[in-house]
Each structure stands twice: as C-alpha cells, then as structure tokens.
Amino acid sequence: MLNDFTGADCIYIACGYTDLRCGIDGLSGIVQQKFRLDPFSSTLFLFCGRRCDRIKALYWEGNGFVLLYKRLENGRFQWPRSPAEAQALTPQQYRWLMEGLSVEQPKAHRPASGLCMV
User: Fold this and answer.
1) Measured on CA atoms in the order 7, 11, 16, 18, is the torsion positive or negative?
2) pLDDT given for residue 102 in this prediction
3) Taking the model in full, what pTM does it have?
4) Burial of 74 from C-beta contacts in 10 A (0-12 / 13-18 / 19+)
5) How far is CA 63 from CA 22, 44, 59, 86, 110, in A?
6) Residue 39 and residue 43: Cα distance in Å, rounded?
7) Which residues contact 104 (CB under 8 A, 6 or more apart)?
C-alpha cells in the first residue's frame, strides 16, 4: 500500500523522531503546529519512531483521515534525523525511502540544468 501510494500531490517526512503512540489527532497537530502545514491538503505525511523499523503515514482523503502503519520485519528505514522539520520528497526520493535507501543518494543522477555541453 505505501510502496505504491499515488494519491498525494505532495509527500513530506517529519525528520527526526516522532512518538508513534500518536494517533490521527496528535499527528495532524504536529503537522499544523510544528511544521505550519495543512493536514487537510492532498499531502502524505510520514513519521518515524526511534527504532526506524516502523512508520506512520497520515493522509486526508476528502472526508476523513487515513492513518497507515508499516512495520518492517527485516531492516530499517533510512530516515533523516538531523533537522526537526518537515522535508518535501520527490517521487523518486519516496521510492528510495520505501525501498530501504536514503532519500539523499550521493551517486544518483541529478537533474540537468538545461545548458548544453558541447
């Protein structure tokens, strides 16, 4: 379900640690108060606890919230821990995260600037 989530216009991850005991109200409060973002938008918000083997996802579906929970049986998510802010992800970064890779791939091809090199 989360690996191929395509319903959201944007994807944000909450960098750092989140208390995963929070439910819909707690997570939507974090989105509003801490990150100053709108939880009622077509955005997927991802949260990770200290153990890095579980994530919660919050998504507004037009008439109510969807709360998804994923626990890995083997492995950990490569979650950015340094800043305590929300970070927007590209679709490619989201795929990397769901595949167990870091959202920052140092050897990945970067988008071209549009300048021709002759």
Assistant:
1) negative
2) 82
3) 0.83
4) exposed
5) 21, 15, 11, 24, 38
6) 7
7) 80, 93
- Dihedral (CA of 5, 1, 64, 49) sign: negative
DSSP 51-108: TSSEEEEEEE-SSSEEEEEEE-SS-------SSSSEEEE-HHHHHHHHTT--SS-TTS
Write the CA distances from 53 to 56, 71, 90, 102, integer angstroms. Answer: 11, 6, 22, 14
Contacts of 40 (CB under 8 A, 6+ apart): 60
31 DSSP assignment: I
CB 46 within 8 A of CB 12: yes
At 13, phi and psi to the nearest 5?
-115, 145
- Kindly give the parts of the chain with pLDDT less than 70: 1, 4, 83-84, 106-118
CB 94 within 8 A of CB 3: no
65 CB neighbour count, 10 Å cutoff: 15
